[in-house]
């Protein structure tokens, strides 16, 4: 009886190790660009509809509903990789029910990076297309 229990426990541990090792060595990160590998990511399709609309406006070059859209994002919080001033631009993501610009933004980098924050720059997710 003890041998059966030990065999089952050892078998379960081995299965867990196989799953863990195969998951760690998988190519799951293969589609993630280098600039996004050290942070949380979100696919465009998982963004709120307002963020997807803001991305379309960015892709189209405007028009933008807020005066500050397209302005330099200075990265004072240092949540994004350090770059020269002017590298990052920020765009407002409308927040339903907010009377001002709200806390949601998309920040783009000159190298094609796209970041999303819903907590006014306290944290960012890399946006994957």
Automatic annotation (TrEMBL):
Signal peptide: 1-27
UniProt xrefs under PROSITE patterns: PROKAR_LIPOPROTEIN
Protein name, as recorded: Ribonuclease N
SUPFAM superfamilies assigned: Microbial ribonucleases (SSF53933)
Record keywords: Hydrolase, Nuclease, Signal
Gene Ontology molecular function: any one: hydrolase activity
Any single Pfam family the record assigns to this protein: Ribonuclease
Highest taxon, organism lineage: Bacteria
Biological source species: Streptomyces alboniger
NADP found in the keyword field: no
């Amino acid at each position: 009886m003890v041998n059966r229990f030990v065999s089952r426990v050892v078998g379960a541990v081995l299965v867990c190790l196989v799953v863990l090792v195969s998951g760690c060595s998988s190519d799951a990160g293969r589609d993630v660009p280098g600039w996004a590998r050290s942070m949380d990511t979100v696919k465009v399709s998982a963004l709120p509809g307002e963020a997807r609309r803001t991305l379309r406006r960015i892709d189209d070059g405007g028009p933008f509903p807020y005066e500050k859209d397209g302005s330099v994002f200075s990265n004072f919080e240092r949540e994004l990789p350090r770059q020269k001033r002017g590298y990052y631009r920020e765009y407002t993501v409308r927040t339903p029910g907010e009377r001002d610009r709200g806390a949601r933004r998309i920040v783009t980098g000159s190298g094609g990076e796209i970041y999303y924050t819903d907590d006014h720059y306290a944290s960012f997710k890399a946006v994957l297309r």
